[in-house]
């Protein structure tokens, strides 16, 4: 089974029921993704399968395990404690371990006894009160810097009930709220959440629908329609474009993105996010091949040259989040 087949069972309307959310990371003292000092909460599950995804552990809407070969000390404790006999000998990069993911039930016993941190369970369920307890610890930093909380992923709209409850609670406490989203959700899911959002960071991957399908697995029509609707509501917007060499960095696509942004209201900036390979090793840790193997990241000078066609636009263009 390849990585796209593994995540195709995604049903965006039925994730995150109740007030419990599946979170795979919480980053404190983040200085991107919404302004000021922020707590970034990464929700698990995404209906897109972008070839360049730097967080492949976010794709599946279920907890999963990863294996970090360089951390393995070969003690064999994981094999001893696994009740499913899912861990065996075998060549796995530099380590003599393999994980049979069909047998693995994600009970977490191996991770519990892996003191070297070679095997980890990715994704844990948290309640809104538990999340707010973490967020509140940095309130003074939000207030001094104009920061707040940003929900990212994965796709935060994939857990709509939890997301809405958490945003509502944060706003009731006077904490600035933002979501970073692909906007790939029905308007019936999206609109009720926006009542509690102070800033939307909306991704655009490609303006050509067929190309968008090739590199993300889905059409861009719903995405662009939703971004227009958010704009019409008057909610502050930052449009984000991951700049991927040879995929969406042509003058024609950049100008198409700019033409689209030009028609929107309340756009604070178009943020260009240059391609990087920081997530490449994560793919291997999940037993997947990296889809863009061999693609080199652009230099800063190359990025500036590539986006020079945007310099005369009326909106702000920035490099980075």
TrEMBL record:
Residues 61-92, 95-124 form the 4Fe-4S ferredoxin-type domain. Pfam families: Fer4, Radical_SAM. Its cofactor is [4Fe-4S] cluster. Keywords: 4Fe-4S, Iron, Iron-sulfur, Lyase, Metal-binding, Oxidoreductase, Pyruvate, S-adenosyl-L-methionine. The keyword Metal-binding applies. Transmembrane segments: none annotated. SUPFAM superfamilies: 4Fe-4S ferredoxins, Radical SAM enzymes. Belongs to the organic radical-activating enzymes family. Monomer. NCBIfam families: PFLE_PFLC (TIGR02494). This is Pyruvate formate lyase-activating protein. It comes from Syntrophotalea acetylenivorans.
